[in-house]
Amino acid sequence: MSELLELFWAFARVGLLGFGGGPAMIPLIQVEVVDLRSWLTPAEFLDAFAFGNALPGPIATKMAGYTGFQVAGWAGAAAALAGVTAPTIVAMVVLFALYRRHKERDVVQRFLYGVRPVVVALLALVVWDFLPTAMNPPDLRWGTWPLWPLAAAALVLSLRTRIHPALLIVAGGAVGWLL
Fold first, then answer.
1. How many angstroms separate the first and last alpha carbons of the chain?
2. Could you state, in order of their start, the residue ranges of all structural domains in the chain?
3. Is the pTM of this model over 0.90?
4. Contact by Cβ (8 Å): 11, 80
5. For residue 73, what are the CA distances in angstroms to 35, 64, 161?
6. What does the pLDDT profile of the chain (179 residues) look like in tens digits?
């Protein structure tokens, strides 16, 4: 299979199975990109994920574009972006039409109740997988101890204030640069 077609299908699977939106797609992207195809190393994936979160827009499309570009240049970025977005667009239009017609049905409500905790668990898995790399980067002159209070401060500020996540990301980058 050509690289472009492989990129398209890898990200189409993510687009088809990524219930819950961009953040819920990250574990699926990680499996496709790191585990199955070794297009990126775990550290490269984490760096792309961190950098992508510092930019506006959906994380799944940023990860698709970045990975596609790394694998096959601009054509690869286009193939991966088409793969991750086309199934979602088609599914959203078709399924939303069905949802509007049947949203009050008990079976639909029970299905959604079951999906929500699975999405949360998948996000927790991403955090768990990224934690060792994120909290133990090499060559910090002060060691890694400042990273834990930094993470705690970002969590508290996220929960207690309406501070924009972009400001937290920039502040974290500034602290990392100082360290």
1. 45
2. 3-132, 136-179
3. no
4. yes
5. 21, 12, 40
6. 699 999 999 999 998 887 766 777 899 999 999 999 999 999 999 999 989 988 888 899 999 999 999 999 999 999 999 999 998 789 889 988 998 999 899 998 998 889 889 878 877 887 888 788 778 776 666 667 778 888 899 999 999 998 888 889 889 888 888 87
